[in-house]
Amino acid sequence: MNTPVALVTGAAQRLGAEICRTLHARGYNIIIHYRSSQVPAEALRDELNAQRDASAVILCADMNSVLDVQSLAKQSLAQWQRLDVLVNNASGFYPTALESAVEKDWDALFNSNLKGPFFLSQAVAPALKETTGCIVNLVDIYAQKPLQGFPIYSMAKAGVAMMTQSLALELGPDVRVNGVSPGAILWPVEETEYSIQEKQDVNHRVPLRRQGEASDIAKTVVFLVADAPYITGQIISVDGGRTVSM
Fold it and tell me: Which keywords label this protein (predicted)?
């Protein structure tokens, strides 16, 4: 089977789903990972398979569990007997004020953002070497300068940035490893909702004076995957210039 294969974690909705659509449009078969969002994962799979038959599958795994992560790797490789791309997109995100943070918060945020992606990368590295493939990690602009009220998340994402550089050294020359660091793209949900005024304030601090779109991230991921054969160990900020004004 010569069709390249991409595994995208946290792929049922939002950025992950857009990354899947964009890679699929470039000819990749897609493995859609999800943890609890089964219904949207199935809908995305059906959408992609309607465009190209038998080109997408879904797999469930908890990125907090190394056993689940290792099982995800095995199941992924069993689908088409190859893997060309791993996109580590799955991520936990919620506030952890210093005075109220507990060990459970530390474990949840470090496991989903850093531990799971590291051990998944380890598990699929031999397959990626066979295809001279690549890894793209979703980082965050707050890996560089922390978001107040989110110290554990910010530290975890800083770890993802270092993991990107470290794995580029460990896996070269056969496997390239890069990162994409989103700025204000999609607003958070649930307990981290922003008010209209807060959103306006954030956009005002962006030199381009507007929020980005999921497609901005997906296109950058695809660039690193398909059009950047001499780039590794790099993290591209897709933030409208936010990092120069933070």
Answer: Oxidoreductase
